[in-house]
Automatic annotation (TrEMBL):
Full protein name: Oxygen-independent coproporphyrinogen-3 oxidase
Origin superkingdom: Bacteria
GO cellular component: cytoplasm
SUPFAM superfamilies, per the entry: Radical SAM enzymes
The species this protein was found in: Tissierella praeacuta DSM 18095
CDD domains given in the database record: Radical_SAM
Protein's GO biological process: porphyrin-containing compound biosynthetic process
Residue span(s) of domain Radical SAM core: 167-404
GO molecular-function term, one example from the UniProt record: catalytic activity
Length: 492
């Protein structure tokens, strides 16, 4: 257990997150005075103070009551081009903690002091202020302490995203639709994923409420400009094609087919995708779908609870290509239990033969609410250096396939403190993914467990409007959800 004492500030949450990056799995407890430390184990004291009008942050690390390391940061010397003094103070506090812990710890910390989900946002803030590339790299590596390869990666991604973000437009929005059903729940998953076998009788009612919600969103958004549509989940193709087709028709009727710039259906699990399904999507002019392997190793697929084999993925992919989808995305997860570098290479070789237009490489994350988290002791997981080699392979293979990184995000509890990267063939970025990740556009979301995000460009902030995560509540209290969105939009 690690004890944390803060003096003259309350930046507790971010410091606890950063300590966890250095000491994964360890409990961190806040104490109010040094008397609460009984002189055993680790104590971290982080204080903020002023001397001659200059603000400093100091971190002291004690092990068994002995001061082992101390580091002080002069906050006046930080230059991150931020807007508020609070932000400078937070960075100073975190840097002093980082500098204290880094010399003691074997772990690699590629993302430096960053613990958030969206590191590319920092690049956009700097680009908004016309900061040049060299200075952005300096800010990322010296102030935020990123490794140079991560700094260059997010700078490139940020620059690639600019044309999809700018100019900011208060009236532009995308639509997200949640279909929270799946054939079975995968080991690692914490998304809304109700097993279809048990919920068959609820689907028609769910779809009718969903359509009611979409109709209402359309009324609220009159006069504004639809950008993209994304039907995700869950696994949208787990429900009968006639039901999903109703949703697609409802979207076209409400928002106008020709005005939608991009329409994705996350088909996802190959065990739900039939030829009839693909033909229905194609007939309805859906041009982007996902067919997600996660891995191309049958043993692992079985272990993670997916009821399909590698050959099903290949067959489904080829069929989808034959039918004529423009963009097929494939999701992979690196670090799955039992997988070594040879498994990852086998997966990448298979993917290379298929040559998808988009590839999304996730690093396994130990999510709260997943079976994996509850049974983690049963599995053998790779150490950070092997995960790093695996991720480098995914980068090399992507380059070979002509794929370039275009969006990136991180997760709490991600193995090895790494990241998820979306790759695409030139000009085949998924615009929705960028909008959703960078939060520079309103996303109106319908369906159980979905979250609408209303963007306020003048204040550069978003406001979340979540739907219920429970099916019964979603169905019974749909009018409240519609009303919530209306009220929040009226304030925008
Ligand atoms: C919302 S899920 C839906 C995809 C679809 N139902 C499927 O499974 O093919 C989107 C993606 O997130 C990734 N994912 C889900 N849980 C994860 C975890 N715990 N760690 C890393 N990636 C995860 C998977 O690659 C998955 O394809
Ligand atoms: S990973 Fe996909 S298929 Fe598996 S449970 Fe999650 S949403 Fe469902």
């Amino acid at each position: 257990m690690i004890k944390l004492l803060l003096i003259n500030h309350e930046t507790r949450y971010e410091l606890v997150e950063l300590i966890r990056v250095f000491f994964p799995g360890q409990e961190v407890i806040s104490i109010d005075t040094k008397n609460d430390y009984i002189g055993e184990g680790i104590l971290i004291v982080n204080s903020l103070y002023e001397e001659n009008g200059i603000k400093f942050a100091t971190t002291s690390l004690y092990i068994n009551d002995v001061l082992v390391k101390q580091s002080t940061e002069n906050i006046e010397l930080i230059e991150i081009y931020g807007r508020s003094i609070d932000k400078y103070i937070r960075i100073g506090i975190k840097k002093s903690l980082y500098n204290t812990l880094i010399s003691l710890n074997e772990a690699k910390i590629p993302w430096g002091i960053l613990t958030g989900i969206r590191p590319v946002k920092i690049v956009h803030e700097l680009l908004d202020r016309n900061i040049d590339d060299n200075e952005i790299i300096r800010v990322l590596t010296e102030e935020y302490k990123l490794y140079i390869d991560k700094a260059k990666l997010i700078l490139n991604i940020g620059k690639k995203q600019r044309k999809y973000i700018e100019p900011l437009n208060k009236d532009k929005y995308s639509l997200y639709i949640s279909i929270p059903f799946c054939p079975t729940r995968c080991l690692y998953c914490s998304f809304p994923a109700l097993p279809i076998g048990r919920y068959e009788n609820h689907i028609k009612e769910y779809i009718s409420k969903l359509i009611y919600e979409i109709n209402n969103i359309s009324k609220m958004m009159k006069g504004k400009n639809i950008n993209t549509v994304y039907i995700g989940g869950g696994t949208p193709t787990a429900i009968p094609p006639t039901e999903l087709e109703k949703v697609i028709h409802c979207i076209y009727n409400n928002f106008g087919q020709k005005d939608i710039k991009e329409f994705t259906v996350e088909a996802g699990r190959p065990d739900t995708i039939t030829e009839d399904y693909l033909r229905m999507l194609n007939k309805n002019n859906i041009r982007r779908i996902s067919i997600n392997p996660q891995t191309m190793n049958d043993g692992t697929l079985k272990l993670i609870g997916r009821q399909h084999k590698t050959e099903d993925i290949i067959k489904t992919f080829k069929l989808a290509k034959e039918i004529g989808f423009d963009i097929i995305n494939m999701d992979l997860i690196i670090g799955l239990p039992g997988e070594d570098i040879l498994h990852v290479k086998k997966t990448l070789e298979e993917i290379k033969r298929l040559d998808p237009e988009n590839l999304t490489v996730h690093t396994l994350s130990v999510k709260r609410g997943s079976k994996f988290r509850d049974t983690i002791d049963k599995y053998s997981l790779q150490p950070q250096n092997i995960l790093s080699t695996m991720l480098n392979e995914t980068m090399e293979y992507s380059k070979d396939m002509g794929l370039e990184p275009y969006y990136l995000y991180r997760q709490k509890q991600i193995l090895g403190n790494f990241e998820n990267v979306g790759y695409c063939k030139p000009k085949m970025e998924c615009i929705y993914n960028i909008a959703m990740m960078e939060e520079k556009e309103t996303i109106m979301a319908a369906g159980m467990g979905s979250v609408s995000k209303i963007f306020f460009p003048e204040e550069n902030r978003i406001e979340r409007v979540p739907n219920f995560k429970d099916l019964k509540e979603y169905v019974e209290r749909i009018d409240e959800l519609v009303e919530n969105k209306k009220v929040k939009l009226e304030g925008s």
